[in-house]
Amino acid sequence: MSGTKSAEIRRQRPTVHPGTPVIIYATKPVGALVGTARIANIAEGTPADIWERHQN
Hints:
Elements: E1 21-26, E2 32-38, H1 47-54
Antiparallel strand pairs: 1-2
């Protein structure tokens, strides 16, 4: 929620497009919707390729 997260790594490509808004849900202990974000980009590649691009 501080705005510092710049990448989310997933095994499967999401079925959304850049620009799609998403709702952020926090599980324990909050159990509530806590914020929103907008998908800026979706990158595909091997784990090594993705790590090289986003490790920082």
